[in-house]
Amino acid sequence: MVEELSSVYDSGLVPLVGSNDESWCQGLDGLASRTAAYYQQGARFAKWRTVVSIPNGPSALAVKEAAWGLARYAAISQDNGLVPIVEPEILLDGEHNIERTFEVAQKVWAEVFFYLAENNVLFEGILLKPSMVTPGAESKEKASPQKVADYTLKLLHRRVPSAVPGIMFLSGGQSEVEATLNLNAMNQSPNPWHVSFSYARALQNTTLKTWGGRAENVKAAQDALLFRAKSNSLAQLGKYSGEGESDEAKKELFVKGYSY
Q1: CATH number for the domain including 185?
Q2: 129 catalytic residue (yes or no)
Q3: pTM for the complete prediction?
Q4: Pick from 81, 117, 234, 246: CA 20 to 30 A from residue 64's CA?
Q5: Could you report the per-residue pLDDT of 199-231, keeping only the tens digit for each?
Q6: Residue 87 is a catalytic residue
Q7: Is residue 140 situated within a structural domain?
């Protein structure tokens, strides 16, 4: 079932001809029939990830392509009964400061919601999975959790309709602790959304390294995963303290040019 449902969403990133060495996300062809079939098999959610690179511009073409693709995917998914998870990711790659990330994210999110509206997407029926507003991973200027929260919440209030029921942030290469601290800081301020998380590397890294493929490490790995889950659950309530974190969980997970 997992293998079958893996193709509900995008088919991956490919070079965007005419851009500044940027990418676009393919997979719209045949999406209507796939989503209809997967709904019959029990699926109720779909996900589509597209990325924008700040060092590569981003070009107006890449931003428009990202926004239009997300909007068409969302409309097709809703038409077939699925809740679309809309994922416009601003990549961490680059030496830019947090103000530059904020500037680009405003532009990208504005186009995303413009095209969602143009395609008659029901905002109440989507989930937004964006990246947080942070400096580039190679920036000399680091930002505290409070600064990341301030910029990210400001962006949410400026660009995201309150009708959107939930926002699940991706970690995008932040360390496990950093991603949890930033989420916690965001939930210490009132906002009209449910601000949650949908992490991959920032939920799995310590768990996988603890396990290491060895049967005798399974219990320790399960405990590590439970600790991360509880930490982020507390961060959703603004009650995460950072106590008990390992050195491994504090290590940066950014990989330049990371793709999947």
Answers
A1: 3.20.20.70
A2: yes
A3: 0.89
A4: 81
A5: 988 999 999 999 999 999 999 999 999 999 999
A6: yes
A7: yes
